[in-house]
Design brief:
single chain; 332 residues; alpha+beta; Uridine Diphospho-n-acetylenolpyruvylglucosamine Reductase, domain 2; Uridine Diphospho-n-acetylenolpyruvylglucosamine Reductase, domain 3; 4-stranded mixed sheet; globular; binds uridine-diphosphate-2(N-acetylglucosaminyl) butyric acid
Amino acid sequence: MKIKHDYNLLSLNTFGISAKCNTLIEYNTPDELLSVIGQSPVLHIGGGSNLLFLDDYKGTILHSRITTIEELEDCRLRVGAGVIWDELVDYTIQHNMYGLENLSLIPGEVGASAVQNIGAYGSEAKDFIVEVDCMNLVSGERRIFSNEECRYGYRQSIFKTDEYKGKWAVLYVTYQLYDTFTPRLDYGGIRVELERKGIGTDTLTAQQLRDIVIEIRHSKLPDPKVLGNAGSFFMNPVVSREKYEELAQQYTHMPHYDVDAEHVKIPAGWMIEQCGWKGRSLGKAAVHDRQALVLVNLGGASGEDILKLCNAVRADVNKRFGIDIHPEVNFI
Ligand code: EPU
């Protein structure tokens, strides 16, 4: 177990914000976590790819270093919360287990995949999660949440609700994978890329699909090592069909995805771009010039700088479209 006091969290948040915590504890096993349970205030983090520190954290930060990958029967894997998500995706393909290809290169760790229900290119973590093994951060109680109990939705889970948020640490996640490769190709320009490369869908391999997803992500999303960011800063809003139809009359080319009979999802990145924010900066924070859903740290920005930009963007989107967009990123 690693315990550090007065620790700068720069390397533990992809936004590259300089903030300190009183104590950082990184544990390697559930027993180590149990031995430090009951700290207050306490914050459990993952890879720090979905956090924005607005100030120093005057408490204890916990971080899992449980990094085991255990092969169970029937293409199931029980994976430690501290495993880097993309290393898991790579592992599955190397071991002929399929399903996670479209989720390649999403930053963060396995624990967060179960909390955030990470998603991209038509796949979501929830499609593969069997159960989530957790420890209560107050009592040390161990509890396994089935996929159903996790109440998954778009970037949503029980672990993000008021009642559960911040109270449970994910120890292990069990995923169900498949021994045959069934590619999902209908989202985010994957087919266009296949055609461009002259790869036929009949000969496509899981590794090739992973490489294409990585290439698409590289072309749109900034590398946090170069330009601090937390991926999509906002969630795509889900609006009533009535609201969508009202807007679609005015914006005939507005991209959208049907959610169900009554609801439609509208890409926040498109709305932000329409408001003229794409590539624009405010102080040391900016809207990324290749994907307007991403806010970036131009260097030395504080959490407050990013928050100011976030609020300005939100206000403009609301003024123009009458839609309130919500950050996906957690403010600490
Ligand atoms: N768009 C614009 N301008 C922009 C950005 C997007 O017009 O600056 C339009 C695109 O042309 C497209 C639509 O908006 O018609 C959707 O864009 P894109 O496919 O890039 O996806 P997104 O909805 O902006 C979501 C996820 C991403 C994920 C992609 C691909 C959320 C919050 N974000 O973004 O996830 O990679 O789909 O599936 O749902 C992340 O969570 O960090 C993340 C990057």
